[in-house]
Amino acid sequence: MSAVATLLRDLEATMARGSGDERAVILARLTDLFLATAIEMDEEQIGVFDVVIGRLSRAIELRARVELSERIAPVPNAPSGVVRQLALDEIAVARPVLVQSPRLADQDLVAVAAAKGRDHMLAITERADLGEPVTDFLILRGGRVVTHAVAANQTARFSRHGMGVLVMRAAQDDALQATLGLRRDVPAELVDQLMIAAKNSARRRLNEGLEPTLTKEVDGAVERGADAIAAGGQMPGELGAISAALVEIRELNETGRLDEASVRSFARDGATEHAICAVAVLAQLSLPASEQVILGTDREAILLVARALGWSWETTAALISLRKDFGKSQPALERARENFRNLAQSTAQRVLGFLRMRDAKP
Fold first, then answer.
1. Of 141, 159, 180, the domain-final residue
2. Tally of domains within the chain
3. Cross-referenced InterPro entries, in alphabetical order (predicted)?
4. Interhelix angle for 330-342 vs 313-320, to 10°?
């Protein structure tokens, strides 16, 4: 540690009469030395650097503090006192350690979130593997923007209470519904609440601008369409036919040749098994759920999925033609086309997201 002793002597002189630039130079030298030897140090040795770097970093300019934060943020055994000090600095300095540093424990992160503002909270939401005490606090105190950010962190962990609050807020927040729809850790009992919220959003958007006499019909279509997709069922046809179709569809998908045009072609050719498998892959649904979408009891389900995937009416009509009940009825097709036109894609995507979650539950 003789190099440290030399730096300490230089530091005392610099702190007494040196300029800001001179202090920054000493800090850079000290940081270089620490990073070069950190892997070999024990906690007592790191503690020496903690005291020295901590003292010096309080007497340097913003630019130098930002550089210090960026350099030590990813270091597993960085001086913990310095890291906490930097985390409480202004956001340009704090952000690197708040996002990356493994030296910040849950209680440190909660303390920073409590002491600082939204910018610090948003930086914390970017951390990998956020713990439940931190996410609980961010949900409670962070406001809408922070709540959305932490909900979008796929590695964050949530307590039962924290997730319950998110789901409750999602009932009045379509964007939060969409974010939660991408998660795979929502408890089964809360998935049903999300589904209800999604259905209500779909009804609300579809009913905007409609005559009062049509709102009941739209409500029923949304409810039946969502329930039909979630219900699942038995696949039609022989198992061998489905297996062969699935092999072909997966090959097309792996080579980048499976798209909307493929689905439309299968449907127009009457290749039901291929169409079911293609919709399952592209919509990320199970085969039974895909079968229900195309051939199930509810006629509106395929409209919901096709609109969510951004498909054209021509593709949707081709899929409808696979049905035996109203696929060939021109009046029924006209009504379906009108419903398809009135269904907002964003609404359909939110509902499909929750259907995927329900479909994935054991």
1. 180
2. 2
3. DUF2336
4. 140
pLDDT tier for residue 361 given thresholds of 50, 70 and 90: low
Question: What does the H/E/C string look like for 5-66?
Answer: HHHHHHHHHHHHHCCHHHHHHHHHHHHHHHHHHHHHCCHHHHHHHHHHHHHHHCCCCHHHHH
Residue positions counted in the chain: 362
**Residue 60 in contact with residue 18, Cβ under 8 Å?**
no
Residue 68's closest CA among 39, 43, 101? Answer: 101
Tell me the average pLDDT of the chain.
Answer: 82
Give the residue with greater pLDDT, 311 vs 292: 311
Tokens of residue 14, six digits:
């610099």
pLDDT band at 159 (very low <50, low <70, confident <90, very high): very high
Work out the number of other CB atoms within 10 angstroms of the CB of residue 222: 25
pLDDT digits (tens, 9 = 90+) for 40-70: 888 888 988 898 888 888 888 899 999 999 9
| 195-204 per-position pLDDT tens digit | 777 767 665 5
96 and 50 belong to one structural domain: yes
Judge if 232 and 332 occupy the same domain: yes
DSSP 234: P
Express as a percent the part of the chain with pLDDT over 90: 41
321 falls within a domain: yes
Q: Is residue 217 located within the same domain as residue 338?
A: yes
Which of 312, 265, 270, 313 lies closest to 295 in space, CA to CA? Answer: 270
Name the residue among 116, 123, 14, 9 with its Cα closest to residue 60: 14
- Cα separation values, 198 from 163, 173, 294, Å: 17, 10, 21
Q: Name the residue range of residue 307's domain.
A: 210-360
Range 33-39 average pLDDT: 88
